[in-house]
Design goal:
This protein is 50% helix and 0% strand. The protein has four helices and no strands. The protein is elongated and about 85 Å long. With 92 residues, the chain is mostly helical.
Length: 92
């Protein structure tokens, strides 16, 4: 006959009973449960950082775009400032 219980008489299974029946080395000791764990992907970390960035200042962006189009934005002083800021970001 089959080892399957009939539908009218469900069998209750405990964690200990399951761990005993699935033990790979035949031990009858109850399995130890570990805590839950969450791992964040690199993409999730980047999205979190993006949410912390300040709002875009549209007025400043439009002003710089206009200066670039007019050819008055690129100056040696601005290049030096940009390079120094980039080096500071890379070294920190």
């Amino acid at each position: 006959m089959s080892d399957i219980n009939p539908i009218t008489r469900p069998q209750q299974t405990t964690f200990e009973a399951v761990s005993k029946s699935t033990s790979s080395n035949g031990d009858t000791a109850a399995a130890t449960r570990t805590g839950d764990r969450v791992e964040l992907s690199e993409q999730a970390r980047l999205l979190s950082k993006l949410k912390q960035l300040p709002e875009v200042r549209e007025g400043l962006v439009n002003s710089v775009k206009s200066q670039i189009e007019a050819g008055s934005y690129d100056t040696p002083e601005r290049f030096d400032t940009a390079i120094n800021a980039l080096l500071d970001d890379l070294s920190s």
